[in-house]
Specification:
single chain, 54 residues, mainly alpha, 61% helix, 0% strand, transmembrane helix, DUF4126 domain-containing protein, transmembrane
């Protein structure tokens, strides 16, 4: 059941990203990066290339 919840959470994140990408792709990347850096949410491993190593 926990695997199902992880898949559902990833789908929800992807749906939000796809909606926001219609606004501005740079803004989407900015929001994802800021959300991860501030600890607002954790990105799935598929998005590890968005991680900044400062």
């Amino acid at each position: 059941m926990e695997n199902h919840e992880a898949i559902l959470a990833t789908q929800a994140l992807l749906m939000g990203i796809s909606w926001a990408s219609g606004i501005n792709s740079y803004a989407v990347l900015l929001l994802l990066g800021l959300g991860r850096v501030t600890g607002y949410f954790n990105l799935p491993p598929e998005f590890r290339h968005l991680k900044v190593h400062w």
